[in-house]
Structure formats: C-alpha cells, structure tokens
Task: inverse folding
C-alpha cells in the first residue's frame, strides 16, 4: 500500500504545533520538525507539547522529528513556523532540498539586516520553489482549541493556494485565498508592534475609547507604510490586516500584547521578554520599522513613540503628551474617489 505523502511543518513552537494538529485532524500525515531531539522525543512519548502548547493533545498523525533533511525529502508542501530570527539560518543549509517544493511561511516578522519578509527570504534561498504566506487572526491556542477561526493563504500561485486550502480547511478553520502575498505578509508583521502598545494601554487601565483610537490609528499608520512600499491598501481591510490587528491588540493571549502589558506594569524590556519565554516578533520589528519609516519619510507617530519609550529613554507620559498635542490630521488617507 502506498503511504500518504506527508506535509512538513517546520517549528516546534505553539503555532507549528497548532497547524500540525489541524493538518493531522484532516487526515494528513505530518512531519513536524524541531531542532531539539529531546523535545521531539518528549512529544512522541507524551503526545503533548507542554513547553509551547500546554494542555493540547497531539493528534497521532503527527510525527515529531529532529531530522530536517528527511522531513524535507518526503514532503512536497512545507509550512514554515520558525521565529524570523531563525528562518534563514535553519533553511540555508538545506536549500538544495527546497527546489520545486511548495513553501508557505507562517512567520510574522522582518529580517533585521535586510528588511526582508520571510517569504522573500524563502524565495532567495530557494528560487525554484513555489512560495506562499499564511497569515490572519490565528492565536495558536485558540486554533488548537478549535475556536472558529479564519486565515488567509496568499500567493501568486493559485494551485498552491488551493493545495493549502485543501490541506487546512476544516470544521473550525476556514482558509481564504489572496493573490496579494506582500500585503498579507506585511500586515502580519506590522501588527505586532501595535499589540505591544495595546498591552501597555491595558496595563495602565486606559479606557475603551483609547483602545479603539489606538487600533484605528495603527491601521492608518501601517497602511500608509505599506502603500509606500507598493502594497495594496485594500488588503489591510481583510483578515490579515485589520483582522489580525484586532485580535492581537485585544487579546491577553498574544505574546506581543503580554510584553506590552509587562512594560505597562513597570518591567524593563529585557525583563518582559524574559518573563514571556516565547517569541514576540514585535520587539525586533519595532526597531527595523522605525529606521525604515524614517528612511522612507513615512509618518508613523505611534512607532516613533513606542521606540522613544523602549529605546530612547523617553517616558510614556512625555510620548503621550507629544502624540495628543500633535497637529491634527485627516482621518482616512485612502478614500477611493474615481469610479466609486
Ligand atoms: N503563536 C501564535 O499564536 C502564532 C505565531 N505565529 C508566528 O509563528 C512564528 C513562530 O512562532 P511560535 O510558534 O508562536 O513560537 P514559539 O515561541 O511558540 O516557539 C518558537 C519555536 O521556535 C524554535 N526555535 C527557536 N530558534 C530556533 C532555531 N534557531 N532553529 C529552529 N527552531 C528554533 C523553538 O525551539 C520553538 O520550538 C512567529 O513568527 C509568530 O509570529 C503566527 C501566527 C500565530
Ligand atoms: O499572530 C498572532 C495572532 O494572529 C499571534 O500573536 P503573538 O505572536 O503576539 O502571540
């Protein structure tokens, strides 16, 4: 009997595990790669991933492995759920095994040195591969707990989108398609920064008006930046834009929000990151985004303000005063006129 071709999920963290479970529940054979052989062994033995996704049973269709080469050799579809700081170094050495595969990044970060998004790094490492991005309001724990959830698969490659929809679409997980890979990926990376601010606002007991202002002005700011880079602003009205922004800025389950909350409680950035013990991509993204916005002369007062508090020794009170006293601006930058 021929064995079902497996799907590879790269990353032993919370999101990789949540995705692996969905795939296995849909009847797919899943090879979940993690760098730590002990973690793989523990997951095989216990049927759980207690360090990153406590309390969630792993489906028996998941085979945890620390053999990256073997996983890549067998799979045609590969979902990458590694932290942005690790993706290039983990995949460059196995570039030869990636040609013609379908590679889908689920990582929501930006490379510090190059300002590249993760799918752009995949493209660079594996020019012959077929590339996509999966992004949306997808808190790993809720995905794993089968909360009704939607996401976006974005690629210029329609067949890839269909393949991912077939593999992941299920009773509790809807997968929408988009051809705007760049916009979808950028939305996922940028929203993390604003989730840090929202966490701070929550810790400081700020009001609901404030939270709403923050999210809406964040959307304006991230869209302005994306448009400067050539993205389609309409994508930011979708799940991977405003959808992900809302969930990450409102949920204590978000790690970026948690970092912000800890900062609002008076912890230093180092203490907040250490207490979390998981990936919070927004911290790195903030650094590179601030520099890039200045270079491109894009007005991003929220990014500049958070950067001033975290890295330039300003107090939050000083920054809030500056933001609120800033010259009044127009509400929506991109109101289509002709043809509407
Ligand atoms: N957790 C979530 O709710 C969601 C996360 N994401 C994205 O998924 C990516 C991964 O995040 P999580 O799974 O949440 O992270 P996590 O913090 O739960 O786990 C990180 C995993 O990466 C591994 N890792 C770290 N450095 C590595 C390296 N050099 N080589 C190989 N593995 C390494 C760790 O051992 C761990 O297994 C992030 O970019 C995040 O933005 C996307 C959607 C939802
Ligand atoms: O991207 C996410 C939800 O869509 C997860 O956000 P955090 O990385 O802040 O937990």
Result:
């Amino acid at each position: 009997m021929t064995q079902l071709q497996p799907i590879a999920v790269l990353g032993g963290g919370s999101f990789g595990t949540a995705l692996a479970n969905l795939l296995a529940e849909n009847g797919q054979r899943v090879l979940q790669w993690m760098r730590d052989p002990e973690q793989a062994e523990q997951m095989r033995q216990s049927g759980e991933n207690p360090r990153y996704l406590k309390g969630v049973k792993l489906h028996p269709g998941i085979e945890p492995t620390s053999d990256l080469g073997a996983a890549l050799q067998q799979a045609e579809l590969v979902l990458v759920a590694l932290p942005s700081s690790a993706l290039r170094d983990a995949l460059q050495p196995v570039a030869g095994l990636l040609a013609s595969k379908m590679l889908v990044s689920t990582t929501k970060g930006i490379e510090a040195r190059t300002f590249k998004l993760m799918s752009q790094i995949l493209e660079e490492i594996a020019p012959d591969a077929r590339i996509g991005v999966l992004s949306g309001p997808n808190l790993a724990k809720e995905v794993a707990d089968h909360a009704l959830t939607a996401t976006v698969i974005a690629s210029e490659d329609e067949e890839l989108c269909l393949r991912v929809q077939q593999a992941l679409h299920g009773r509790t997980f809807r997968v929408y398609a988009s051809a705007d890979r760049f916009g979808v990926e950028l939305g996922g990376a940028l929203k993390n920064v604003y989730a840090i601010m929202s966490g701070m606002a929550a810790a400081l007991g700020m009001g609901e008006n404030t939270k709403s202002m923050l999210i809406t002005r964040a959307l304006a700011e991230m869209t302005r930046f994306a448009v400067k880079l050539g993205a389609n602003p309409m994508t930011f009205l979708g799940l991977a834009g405003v959808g992900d922004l809302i969930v990450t800025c409102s949920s204590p389950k978000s790690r970026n929000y948690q970092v912000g909350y800890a900062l609002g409680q008076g912890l230093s950035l180092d203490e907040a990151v250490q207490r979390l013990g998981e990936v919070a991509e927004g911290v790195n993204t903030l650094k590179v985004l601030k520099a890039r916005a200045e270079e491109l002369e894009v007005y991003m007062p929220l990014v500049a303000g958070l950067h001033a508090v975290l890295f330039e020794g300003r107090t939050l009170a000083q920054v809030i005063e500056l933001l609120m006293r800033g010259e009044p601006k127009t509400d929506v930058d991109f109101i289509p006129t002709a043809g509407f």
The radius of gyration is 20 Å. Strands lie at 7-10, 30-33, 48-49, 53-57, 62-65, 77-80, 102-105, 130-135, 149-154, 173-178.
